[in-house]
Amino acid sequence: MSYQQITSAARQFRPAAPVALEDARETLVGVCGSFELSAFGGADSITGAIEGVPLGQFDAAVVATHVRSVWRDAAMIRRDPGRNLFLIYQETGCSVIRQSDSEHLMQPGSFHLVDSAFPSEFRYFDAVTRKISVHLPREEALRRLGQTCVGGLAIDSADPLNAALEAVLLKLLTAAPDAAMKLSDTLVELLGAYLRCLETQTPSQVTEKAALLQKAKSLIVWRARDPSFGLAELCEDLGMSRRSVQRLFSASGETVSTVLQDARLEIAHRELTLAPARTITDIAFASGFNDLSHFHRCFRTRYGVAPGTMRKRASSAA
């Protein structure tokens, strides 16, 4: 199962289009409850499409937006108490979810369980992203899933059950009503199985290091557009020595430079398909590269074609 398959199945949903910020806010509140959102540069309009959809026995929301951030604070919770757990699936683009003093980098194919009874924040990068949010009634979800999900938690994308959740969600997007009712129940059962596995695990240095690595990667994606950002700046942000950070990444077979380069290439790839008016040179430099020849070499190695060819293909498919 790949996120491209989810994307293909989800093309029934409305594409993002220009909309007034206030109208987008009103729609978001109507579909998801009390949330606030802000646009890049303080603009009074965004590109977006927010709609509620039924997914079997649950309500769901499809949120495609180009915004700076979306958040729900304590005052909003007092006015509109949290009645749902949101099982969030990142279909396209990247974002960072912050809840209960933890951050999770959401990439295509990632899941995160957000508890609407606790403050949360979604931070975005400069591109349209789309999430599918399955709304699990909180009281019933806690009865079935237990207390592990209180306050929200990230779903490990490397866990085999993540792939199972993704497969069931794909079926839900295209299933007939009768089948969708059974599939939505299966989705909760899989989530429950994942949480029960977590409950039987003993906290260890391994899980602590995994959380620290995720935080480091979130910082890299967040700051990738800055051409001066590198290992030294990451070490400063993490409060760790250069050697410790290098060991952290090498334990997973990665390096800071390769993760940073991949993040910049993903930004450039999105911009090439979403911003046809911008030049390739402008996109390369805005993505954090400071050498155009190096950008072209890296892009061709990663995607198998030159940036210009990639843009032409995307334009032809539109």
Automatic annotation (TrEMBL):
Q: MF terms per GO, please?
A: DNA-binding transcription factor activity; sequence-specific DNA binding
Q: Any idea what this protein is called?
A: Transcriptional regulator, AraC family
PROSITE patterns given in the database record = HTH_ARAC_FAMILY_1, HTH_ARAC_FAMILY_2
Query: Which keywords annotate this record?
Result: DNA-binding, Transcription, Transcription regulation
Record's InterPro entries?
A: AraC-bd_2, AraC_XylS_family_regulators, Homeodomain-like_sf, HTH_AraC, HTH_AraC-typ_CS, Tscrpt_reg_AraC-type_HTH
* The organism's place on the tree of life at top rank: Bacteria
Q: Which Gene3D superfamilies match?
A: Homeodomain-like (1.10.10.60)
The source organism is Tranquillimonas alkanivorans
Occurrences of domain HTH araC/xylS-type (ranges): 214-313
